[in-house]
């Protein structure tokens, strides 16, 4: 099992290219099930989750290919993929595939909309909370699907097709918004989704569906209206840059000091996180290449933050920000409002010398003058990268085990940081 070894040291200097967003690429790939024509996606990141989804879509009959590199491209450049589900050969998504990645449950929407039937395994437990699929099931029922749960599978039937309706989501859910928006695109009549997720990835999916012929209004607001169409066509779409990767590297630069340009990054995708980072002592400048991140000369200031759905501070940057706060001047508080059990990185940060006290969903971080390297273990995707951020300034050597979590969501992380002067390497066992 691979490990990452790093030695804390100097500031990060240089350029880091920001990859296409994983959280946008996955629903965009699933949208290929809605049409018998080819959907071409540019700027798709090379990630374990993307590879796994290729496998899952192939099971349903999707043909896919990846374009070769073009002149001037390097391994940091996103890939262009072609997906074509000309014929759906299997409407079952089995447990052994769905269990590897929760997002694969979203295929239930396109499958029942296009084929009138879907049998999709319930995704099972999740390390960072229950993340129930009730919203998905209730929403599809509002669109006329008959759904039963049998032996761990959600079986959805709509032999005469889905019918538009009103879906009031009881809680903001990005996954449910994605799934229902895709399903409603092929439903008869109009669908209104209220309390919809406003995340940029939802807007990205809507833009792609519109290019495929869907009629969608309101994406990016809490109410999305979809007028169903008889069929969708192929299209070409570019995946937006990854705001979580952007925020992660911005926090790494703030942690170490230095001067780094995050190529292709967009400030409008994470205004709350960048504003919080500026309060902590980072200088952020928009350029024609992306975002330039520098730390002012005053060190890191303690800042309180609470996670919120978009446009608030993202839960997917909570662990990274906690790592930054471990060496801040003063005491900070982080409140996690989105997921339970999302403080699993606390014990591992403590092994590096961080002083963190947990009470319910609030973490109190007392900044220390120096972290010290130690062997640590990644517990989930975002937690693992928080350990990298802490290890970049920790005295001595830090070894991070279970880095397969990192490979799910960060493309070529050690290469990108290494290019900017980090003493970091991957060790394959």
User: Helices and strands: which structural class?
Assistant: alpha/beta
At CATH's second level, what is the architecture of the largest domain? Alpha-beta prism
CATH T-level fold name of the largest domain: UDP-n-acetylglucosamine1-carboxyvinyl-transferase, Chain
Number of domains: 2
Task: Please compute the radius of gyration using only Cα atoms.
Answer: 22 Å
Number of helices: 14
CATH superfamily of the largest domain: Enolpyruvate transferase domain
Spatial sequence of strands, sheet with the most strands: 22-23-1-24
Q: What is the name of the CATH class of the largest domain?
A: Alpha Beta
Care to count the β-strands? 24
Low-confidence segments, given as residue ranges, are 125-131
Report the biggest beta sheet as strand number plus sense, adding barrel if it closes.
4 strands, mixed
In helices, the fraction of residues equals 25-40%
Overall pLDDT metric: 93
Estimate what percentage of residues fall within beta strands: 25-35%
Taking the alpha carbons of the first and last residues, their distance comes to 5 Å
Shape: globular
Can you describe what's shown?
This protein has 429 residues and is of the alpha/beta class. It folds into two domains: 3-17 and 241-427, Alpha-beta prism (UDP-n-acetylglucosamine1-carboxyvinyl-transferase, Chain); 25-238, UDP-n-acetylglucosamine1-carboxyvinyl-transferase, Chain. The chain is built from 14 helices and 24 strands. The protein has helices at 22-30, 48-59, 95-98, 108-115, 134-142, 174-185, 200-211, 243-256, 271-280, 318-325, 345-351, 381-391, 404-409, 413-419; strands at 3-7, 12-17, 39-44, 63-66, 79-84, 92-93, 117-121, 146-150, 153-157, 166-168, 190-194, 215-217, 223-227, 235-238, 258-263, 282-286, 290-295, 305-306, 331-335, 355-359, 362-366, 375-377, 397-401, 423-427. The strands form six sheets. A four-stranded mixed sheet has the order 22-23-1-24, covered by helices on one side. A hairpin with a 5-residue loop joins strand 12 (215-217) and strand 13 (223-227).
